[in-house]
Amino acid sequence: MKWQEANGKACEVAKTNEPDLQGWIEEGRRNAIDVAGMLGVPPEIYIHDPMSLIPALQEYVSRAPLDEFEQSDWVTLHSDLMSCVADYLVRKHGARWTVAEDPAAPRGYRFVIEAAGRDEQIRRMDPIDVVMKEFASLPIDITRMLATAELALQSTPSDGES
């Protein structure tokens, strides 16, 4: 927060470019749960097992008429996939969202996912980069996309699975 004088009084105002990490986290989590529900995966099942979304999400992207998409459709699909990739990493691997400075970004920062890899080193990745990489290798393969994200973090399951 910064201080600004208004009508002779000092008041606290939010910086316009200050990252709202908590809002970003909640919006992404809510979107992933909404996508699951839209695709017929009950939220309680998805929350317990994020892998339960994979078949429905694969069917959805396989049937999507990508050649008929308008810009808004592309934005929505990219956002939905990014939310699902990130939420999968959070739920399955104990990853977390954080803010990374990025002078090249319009706001000067990006929201990224970070997690300790198998070697205990903290790694960061931007889920949108994984989604964009997947679109370069059509058709979209949800399992490949999630594996790419896991590879970027060199993740291991956080719940003792192997």
Overview of the molecule:
The structure is a single chain. With 162 residues, this protein is α+β, with helices and mostly antiparallel strands. It has 6 helices and 5 strands. The strands form 2 sheets. The protein has a 3-stranded antiparallel sheet. A hairpin with a 2-residue loop joins strand 1 (2-6) and strand 2 (9-13). The radius of gyration is 18 Å and the shape is globular. 24% of the residues are buried.
Summarize the helices and strands and which ones pair or pack:
Blueprint: E1 2-6, E2 9-13, H1 21-38, H2 43-48, H3 54-63, H4 71-93, E3 96-101, E4 109-116, E5 122-125, H5 127-135, H6 142-153
Antiparallel strand pairs: 1-2, 3-4, 4-5
Largest beta sheet: strand ordering:
3-4-5
Shape: globular
Judged by helices, strands and strand pairing, the structural class is alpha+beta
Number of strands: 5
Q: What is the average per-residue confidence, as pLDDT, rounded to a whole number?
A: 88
What is the count of helical runs?
6
Helix share bin: 40-55%
Q: C-alpha Rg, in Å?
A: 18 Å
- What string gives the helices and strands in order? EEHHHHEEEHH
**How far is it from the N-terminal to the C-terminal residue, by CA?**
44 Å
Q: Oligomer, anyone?
A: single chain
How big a fraction of the residues is strand? 15-25%
